[in-house]
Amino acid sequence: MRKLIYGMNLTLDGYIAAPGDDIGWSVPSDELFQFWSDRLEATDLTLYGRKLWQTMSSYWPTGDQRPDATPAEIEFARRWRDMPKVVFSSTIDQVDWNTRLVTGDAVAEITRLKAEDGGPMDIGGATLAGAAMRAGLIDEYVLATAPVLAGGGTPFFTALDTWVNLTLVETRTFPGGVLLTRYETRR
Question: Where are the transmembrane segments (predicted)?
């Protein structure tokens, strides 16, 4: 059975985007960017909701071709492009870059994918991750909490029907005061 991991950068007050989908507060240090790139390398499949997919696919397919791209950005862009991806959406009808589109029941498909043999899967996007959380499918949470308050926006955690008990498995501080915390779901 595969492990499902939900991780993103977020503000201290728990938002992955400020009002208006503004993510300008989230400028990762080189070390944090490398952490996320290494996680991508260790992941077999990434699951995206539509909004995060559109954000990622607007930049990373050609991120390695930009004249100002750093070696780390070049590496990440290539990893991202090569990574098998699944996008869950009922409003788009086409995806590219080693990606498959699912328009049906996201929870049923995530459950099916988890039951397969293989390495870990990442899930991104608050709405999609929220559905997976409510279904009890997420095994690990990775929070890179920036020392900034957004005051509103898109929350990392959505409303849940029941408690989810977690065990802290790692803490790490990155430059700029970003605190990484990893939690595993207690089953």
Answer: none
Q: pLDDT digit string (tens) for 59-92? A: 787 888 889 988 888 888 899 899 999 999 989 9
- Percent of the chain at pLDDT > 70 equals 100
Contact residues for 128 (Cβ-Cβ < 8 A; gap 6+):
47, 48, 49, 52, 88, 106
The CB-side HSE value for 60 (13 A sphere, CA atoms) comes to: 22
- Per-residue pLDDT of 162-184, as tens digits, reads 999 999 999 999 999 999 999 99
Q: Could you tell me the sign of the dihedral formed by the alpha carbons of 5, 10, 13, 18, in that order?
A: negative
**Local structure of 26: helix, strand or coil:** coil
pTM for this model (two decimals) = 0.93
CA atoms of 141 and 5, how far apart (whole Å):
6
Distance CA 183, CA 5 (A): 10
- Residue 184 CA to residue 162 CA, distance in Å, equals 16
Query: DSSP per residue over 99-162, as a string?
Result: EEEE-S-HHHHHHHHHHSSSS-EEEE-HHHHHHHHHTT---EEEEEEES---SSSEESSPP-SS
Q: For helices 71-82 and 30-41, give the axis angle rounded to 10 degrees.
A: 30
